[in-house]
């Protein structure tokens, strides 16, 4: 057997490109406090890699609770909002529609609706602040997954999630 020591290993080589890293992007009438950042995927012959969240560029609140959601084709998760946490959702695959609605009466974007089509063709990190209503539908033909890295833990004793039915007429969007 060849002898090997820790000194034989070489330092890692970072990406040498200038692809923007977690670059902010905006949509029309973007709801106040919502943030959208483009995720960049780097591939090599083994596969690819996408950074979902990082404190490299700016300080961030560490994610104390990270979970992966799988969504069946056409399935709907809506409507919800949180009173304390921000959601930080990374979409990298599938064809997912996220709909956001602003019901905060003191917000400059009160009653604005944002429709975001995200997933394989539009990889993004979406930050949704407290009290912004949101829902998600998988519009693709296969299951899609996404990762949530909220700012708070899910506390089973005191869940921070308020819900109303997905077809409530008070929100001007119909899932199909
Ligand atoms: C994360 C978590 C959830 N749960 C329970 C609570 C629910 O009864 C069930 C499903 O939770 P989920 O958060 O998936 O609930 P949804 O309302 O479908 O939320 C999903 O869709 C909306 C639109 C999103 O924004 C969430 O990020 C996404 O998770 O698991 C737990 O018991 N422990 C946990 O750590």
Structure characterization notes:
The structure is a single chain. The protein is an all-beta fold and about 180 residues long. The protein has one domain: Jelly Rolls (Sandwich), CATH 2.60.120.10. It is built from no helices and 13 strands. The strands form three sheets. It has a six-stranded antiparallel sheet, with no helix packed on it. It has a five-stranded antiparallel sheet with strand order 9-8-11-6-13, with no helix packed on it. The protein has a two-stranded antiparallel sheet with strand order 3-4. A hairpin with a 2-residue loop joins strand 3 (about 40-45) and strand 4 (about 45-50). The N and C termini lie far apart (about 60 Å). The model has no long low-confidence stretch (mean pLDDT about 95). The structure holds dTDP-4-keto-6-deoxyglucose.
Question: How are the SSEs ordered, and which strands pair?
Answer:
Layout lengths: L22 E3 L9 E4 L2 E4 L2 E4 L16 E5 L4 E6 L5 E5 L3 E8 L10 E7 L4 E5 L3 E7 L5 E5 L13 E2 L13
The structure holds dTDP-4-keto-6-deoxyglucose.
Give the strand content: 35-45%
C-alpha Rg, in Å? Answer: 19 Å
* Overall CATH architecture: Sandwich
* Shape by Cα distribution: elongated
CATH superfamily: Jelly Rolls
Secondary-structure-based class equals mainly beta
- Report the count of strand segments: 13
Listed once per kind, the bound small molecules are: dTDP-4-keto-6-deoxyglucose
Main sheet properties? 6 strands, antiparallel
Runs in which pLDDT lies below 50 for 5 or more consecutive residues are none
Q: What gap, in angstroms, lies between the N and C termini?
A: 62 Å
- CATH-defined topology: Jelly Rolls
Q: Helix proportion of residues, in percent?
A: under 10%
Number of domains: 1
Q: Averaged pLDDT, please?
A: 97
Biggest sheet strand line-up: 1-2-10-7-12-5
Secondary-structure element sequence? EEEEEEEEEEEEE
CATH class: Mainly Beta
Helix tally equals 0
């Amino acid at each position: 057997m060849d002898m090997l020591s820790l000194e034989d290993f070489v330092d890692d080589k970072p990406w040498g490109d200038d692809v923007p890293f977690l670059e902010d992007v905006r949509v029309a009438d973007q709801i106040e406090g919502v943030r959208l950042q483009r995720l960049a995927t780097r591939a090599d012959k083994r596969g690819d890699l996408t950074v979902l969240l990082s404190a490299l560029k700016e300080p961030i609140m560490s994610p104390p609770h990270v979970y992966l959601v799988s969504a069946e084709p056409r399935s709907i998760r809506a409507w919800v909002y949180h009173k304390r946490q921000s959601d930080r959702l990374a979409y990298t695959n599938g064809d997912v529609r996220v709909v956001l609605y602003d019901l905060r009466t003191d917000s400059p974007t009160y009653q604005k609706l944002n429709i975001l089509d995200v997933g394989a063709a539009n990889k993004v990190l979406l930050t949704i602040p407290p009290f912004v209503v949101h829902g998600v539908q998988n519009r693709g033909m296969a299951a899609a997954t996404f990762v949530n890295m909220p700012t708070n833990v899910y506390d089973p004793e005191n869940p921070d999630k308020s819900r109303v039915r997905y077809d409530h007429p008070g929100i001007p969007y119909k899932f199909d």
